[in-house]
Amino acid sequence: MPARRILHIDLDAFFASIEQRDHPEYRRRPVVVGAEPGRRGVVAACSYEARRYGVHSAMPISEAVRRLPPETVYLRPRIDYYACVSREALAALGTISPLVESASIDEAYLDISGLDSLFGPPEAIGRRAKAVIREAVGLRASVGIGPNRLVAKLASDYRKPDGLTVVPRERVQAFLDPLPLTALRGVGPKTAPRLRQMGLRTIADVRQVPLLELRRRFGHLAGTRIYAQCRGQADDTVEPGRRRQSISKEITFDSDLCEVETLRETLYWAAQEVGALARRAGRRGVSLTLKLRLADFTTHTLTRSLSVPTAEDRTLFREAWGLYRQSPWSGKPLRLIGLSLSGWDPSDAPSAQRELFPEAGPEEDSKTAKLYRALDAVREKFGKDALHFGVLPAARSQSPKRSS
Ligand SMILES: [Mg+2]
């Protein structure tokens, strides 16, 4: 078996680049996709022209407006459309390797082990990946190639936009050593300051710390993981149907939401979206989380464990609504509501990704599965509002905006 080789591809400034591709008049101008200027909300994505002004995603839109020149283009995100482009890009990558794993809407991992005889050395495969993306969707991408996911991802980050970085196995340590310790997976806002307090800055610094010391400070699992990653040891598997951590939907309101009926309707919409995404991924979850942001910007999350794994809209809605009604924040004005599902049923195997409810369950289960399959097909064809179970109240008085 040939040594494992992983390719990570990241589409550059994905949302903004799609808009610039579709609208030539936006090219070479700062483009911000996100909340409407003058309203509450953040930048979802921005073009490289906007990044030159220090603007980045998750920055409040008011801050972005303050920094950017008047010729800037501000756009609302068209997530469904971007998701279509993402699927086209993913399909194009399938012509290089059958092992393509979508990591997010604009990122994927490919297992390219043993493809040299077909396509040439890693550099050639990297150029090919960029070329198929350009051909299929007309967008630029940055590519990193390495012996595992960690190195491939850091390599694609190394030179952007339009980059291509190959890190052969024997160069891994030299590549990793000068990088800041935050490049390691799982070293975030909690762990990084603690490592810095130890006088460490780079991966080379962290590599000097003995395994037992890392375990003592960060726990057995995290310590071991940090130790291994510093030495370039990481996960090298690519699973086309790898399970997502959670599936979620959030809705930010234009102004504080007070009416219970509108909230109920919005929550039902979120339950439908989460249910449809989970079913498309062939997943059922047992852990439901409701996120509420109040008018004073405090955010609260409530989690409920379901007795049976599910991906059904009605169950998700019923449980979420119950959580909301029992919460101390019921009836209070809201700025944001979010719903997420996780805790996936291990029997929903990754290989069954496209199949809904794969294992034949009791009669009732398969009937429900059939119903949802039909429902999803109609929704896909005629739009999301085409069909629902009829529990929705009257027209919207306040239109919800998707924020993620
Ligand atoms: Mg990207």
Chart the SSEs and their pairings.
Layout (H helix, E strand, L loop, with lengths): L5 E6 L2 H9 L8 E4 L8 E4 L1 H4 L9 H7 L5 E3 L3 H15 L6 E5 L2 E5 L4 H4 L2 H16 L3 E6 L2 H10 L5 E3 L5 H5 L14 H7 L5 H5 L3 H8 L1 H11 L16 E11 L2 H21 L4 E10 L4 E12 L2 H14 L7 E11 L18 H20 L18 E2 L2
Parallel strand pairs: 2-4, 7-8
Antiparallel strand pairs: 1-6, 1-7, 2-3, 5-6, 9-12, 9-13, 10-11, 10-12
Helix pairs in contact: 4-6, 11-12, 13-14
Bound molecules: magnesium ion (MG).
**What is the CATH C level class of the largest domain, in words?**
Alpha Beta
Structural class: alpha+beta
Label the overall shape.
globular
Count of individual beta strands = 13
Topology order in helix (H) and strand (E) letters: EHEEHHEHEEHHEHEHHHHHEHEEHEHE
Helicity, in percent?
A: 25-40%
| Unreliable sequence segments | 349-365, 385-404
Total individual domains: 3
Q: For the residues shown, what is the average pLDDT? A: 85
Strand share of the residues? 15-25%
Instruction: Calculate Rg over CA atoms.
Output: 23 Å
How far the N terminus sits from the C terminus, by CA atoms, comes to 41 Å
Briefly note the CATH topology name of the largest domain. Alpha-Beta Plaits
Structural description of this entry:
The protein is an alpha+beta fold. The protein has helices spanning 14-22, 48-51, 61-67, 79-93, 116-119, 122-137, 149-158, 172-176, 191-197, 203-207, 211-218, 220-230, 260-280, 313-326, 363-382; strands at residues 6-11, 31-34, 43-46, 73-75, 100-104, 107-111, 141-146, 164-166, 247-257, 285-294, 299-310, 334-344, 401-402. It has a 5-stranded mixed β-sheet with strand order 5-6-1-7-8. It has a 5-stranded antiparallel β-sheet with strand order 11-10-12-9-13, covered by helices on one side. It has a 3-stranded mixed β-sheet with strand order 3-2-4. The radius of gyration is 23 Å and the shape is globular. The two termini are 41 Å apart.
